[in-house]
Amino acid sequence: MYFKSTYPSPLGTLTLACDGDRLVGLWLDGQKYYGGAISGEMTENNVMPVFEATKKWLDAYFAGKRPAIAGLPLRPIGGEFRQIIWGILCEIPYGEVTTYGDIAKKLAAKTGRGSMSSQAVGGAVGHNPISIIIPCHRVVGSNGSLTGYAGGVQTKIALLELEGADMSKLFVPKRGSAL
Predict the structure, then answer these.
(1) pTM for the complete prediction?
(2) Averaged confidence pLDDT in the chain
(3) Domain locations along the chain
(4) What pLDDT is recorded for position 179?
(5) Rounded Cα distance, 82 and 55, in Å
(6) Which residues are marked as active site?
(7) In CATH, what is the architecture of 2-71?
(8) What 3-state class would DSSP assign to 100?
(9) Residue 74 has pLDDT above 50, yes or no
(10) Pairing between β-strand 98-99 and β-strand 139-140 as defined by DSSP bridges
């Protein structure tokens, strides 16, 4: 059984989902892959400790502080490959960006492979079920393009600007998955 609650963020309403003890989802209304791997209905429950902790984390984050991800009980739903990618995302420092290619290299090193596909990494990043907290918005194209954010490119820009990321070498592509 899964539970849900909402949070009124500066970016719009966020829906939080948990399994009772751990956060399994966080989505913007209208986000691609909203609801992720959760099957069935989510029961509304606004007083669960995991939701209270997550809302405090979000309050701190949107106030421009740097709350630690490790302080939250996270349990994103996904296979082993995606879990590894989401773990790598959690290592990206606040206010910094990395590329899909850099993540592919880290993944190859962790799994003992010679190389890994950036496109496969992009698929796992795009299906991140706990957006904002697991910081997939910090991943950009190798040329600095702001691509691949399920919440939309304007949301990605807003999150990076909130974190004080250097936006000088980043750009919105004229067409592509970010639009």
Answers:
(1) 0.93
(2) 93
(3) 2-71, 80-162
(4) 42
(5) 25
(6) 136
(7) 2-Layer Sandwich (3.30)
(8) helix
(9) yes
(10) parallel
